[in-house]
Amino acid sequence: MTKKFGIIGNPIKHSLSPLLHNYWFEKYSIDANYSIINVKEENGLQEIINKIRNKEISGINITLPYKQKIVSCVDNLVNDAEVTSSVNTVYLDKEDTVIGENTDVFGLQAAYLKEIDNASKKKTLIIGAGGVSPSVILSLQKSGVQEISITNRTNEKCIFLKNKFKKLNIIEWEKLKEQLKNFDIIINATSLGLKGGNDFEFNFEQVKTNLIYIDTIYNPMETKTFKFLKKMDIKVFNGLDMFIYQGQKAFYLWNKVNPEIDEKLLELLVSNLK
Predict the structure, then answer these.
(1) Are 237 and 209 in contact (CB under 8 A)?
(2) What is the pLDDT of residue 53?
(3) Residue 246 pLDDT
(4) Kindly report the CA angle at 12 between 61 and 133, in degrees rounded to 5?
């Protein structure tokens, strides 16, 4: 019987998750299919979890805006999901318990943070306090980053995260542009720049020349801000590698197979972003 997997979120049309996981299912001869699952109403989250409990669906990924909203629907949070209260992967364990896991933390570390020298000395700014932000904070902490600041249009979300991560500094959104020059690493954890959406209302002109800019967005591969900083010879990363690595760990949790990230896969993903 073909196992069913999928991803929920809104908007969700931009997701390459079906392409990624179906490539691996075919490569490893696993009888499974991965598709986009449309859930527009929040009460639909529990319905999806019930389908996992009833073994109609074998597992799901979760993206914005449901990473924190799904927490109350699962039976148990484990590992990084327990720390962040943010879930992007759900599955049924051997005891038929619905597990909420977080593979975003691993994805960010594997993709970028392991490559950064002297991470503990880098002043880091996270822009955005939504579903992926707790994962970004935890991955930075695990990488040894000592000074982490966050900003968001609504301060309430920043305060919520500061209650969870005590050493977090909050920067007012209105002061963001003038504060950019103080940071060694800036991570865009908002949806600003997402294909078909809005980008930042200002340019990142006043930044350090040795800045590292990480965008959690991968579609498009280069947002307006990404292109602007790239022209300034700033070191820039898009969210594609993070996306692939978080998917790799999710695939392992579901199938107990650690899939290879090969050139054919990379070419397939990039060709669908052009």
Answers:
(1) no
(2) 97
(3) 98
(4) 60
Predicted pLDDT at 11:
82
Six-digit token pair at 191? 């949806």
Round the CA-based radius of gyration of the chain to a whole number and report it. 18
Q: Which of 13, 27, 40, 67 is catalytic?
A: 67
Contact residues for 147 (Cβ-Cβ < 8 A; gap 6+): 122, 123, 124, 169
User: Is the distance from CB of 1 to CB of 55 less than 8 angstroms?
Assistant: no
Q: Are strands 98-101 and 89-92 parallel, antiparallel or unpaired?
A: antiparallel
* DSSP label of 67: T
- 67 included as an active-site residue: yes
Task: Please report which confidence band the pLDDT of residue 131 belongs to, taking 50, 70 and 90 as the band edges.
Answer: confident
Does residue 197 carry a pLDDT above 80?
no
Tokens of 258: 């650690």
Domains in the chain, please, with CATH? 3-104+246-260 (3.40.50.10860), 106-240 (3.40.50.720)
- Distance, in Å, from the CA atom of 21 to the CA atom of 5, rounded to the nearest integer, reads 9
Whether the CB-CB separation of 242 and 215 falls below 8 Å is answered with no
The residue type found at 178 is E
SS3 179: helix
Q: Tell me, what's the pLDDT at 102?
A: 98
Q: What is the pLDDT of residues 71-111, one digit of tens each?
A: 999 999 999 999 999 999 999 999 999 999 999 999 999 99
pTM across the whole model: 0.93
Provide the 3-class DSSP secondary structure of residue 172.
coil
What are the residues facing 7 on neighbouring strands?
Answer: 36, 61
Residues 6+ apart with CB under 8 A from 16: 218, 219, 243, 269, 272, 273
